[in-house]
What we know:
By secondary structure, the protein is α/β, with parallel strands linked by helices. It contains 11 helices and 11 strands. The radius of gyration is 22 Å and the shape is elongated.
Amino acid sequence: IKNIAVLTSGGDAPGMNACIRAVVRTGIYNGINMFGVLQGYQGLINNNIIPMDARSVSNIIHLGGTILKTARCLEFKTDEGMEIAYQNLKARDIDGLIVIGGDGTFTGARNFSNKYNIRVMGIPGTIDNDLYGSDFTLGYDTAINTVIEAIDKIRDTADSHDRLFFIEVMGRDSGCIALRSAVASGAEAVLLPERHTSIDELVSQLASGASTKKSSSIVIVSEGHKAGGAYDIAKQVKEQFNHYDTKVTILGHLQRGGSPSSFDRILGSRLGFAAVNEMLQGTSKAMVGLRGNEIKTTGIDEALSRHSFKLENDLLEMTKVLSI
Ligand code: ATP
């Protein structure tokens, strides 16, 4: 293998830049010519492929987002789109592609590699932590830190005014951000897509807090919760329980941004380093991930077909006990 390209695709996540830096520098250290693809698979099709040297990734380890940009690209799902992408890589003799993204990104890489003679490696980059094969995905830790910083501020006003706050956090299918944020911010309750909590149950929990003189309460709602978003839930709760003045905050896209935490910088560096080394040893159609503080590879087919329940059971139990 002589030439490797790297791209970021799907939603951006803090730590992607640290990872790009590690990929580029590990490749160069091993005598590989490195390329960056701009705007994910769209850049492969548009021939937006640039050579990268060690200095192209200077001063980016602390930056959120992705210097390579990202995009959602429907054309790459078509045979014609893939053929154009392949020809653009072939013209530069690029025989390895490293993709940083979520399961859509991995599906694209697998299909591409099934069709053409290109080695691919996937790196899990998404704030949702919803991928099999890695205990933590890139950006997840930073997103939790961002959420708890926001909740700390909301708690000040909640407490001063005797308010009940419903705070909606990201996670359409995965309650990972919600659960960890709940523990780290001392929230009174958390609503997760993976677990059903009835409004009655929630109301009785809040009422018991109020009866033991809690001056305010914070409920974290994962955006994928079956009973609705934070506004719907707040409305349903208010119909039965009117002890506090009720407010809703939707944190939204601020959860994606910001300087990566030390954890995500180190994880991005480790995963980037490992992905290149694996590819140089002949591995393809695999992802690298963190499992029990070791970097392990998982076949992309396995990663895409299997699903793990990622919510930590001890945290689930703890939230109820610690918020009495
Ligand atoms: P996130 O979890 O942040 O949403 P993701 O990688 O799952 O990240 P997607 O938008 O689902 O994000 O996928 C990223 C890109 O991967 C798509 O825009 C598309 O270009 C490509 N892709 C997804 N599915 C396929 C597929 N079946 N075949 C080819 N390419 C695909």
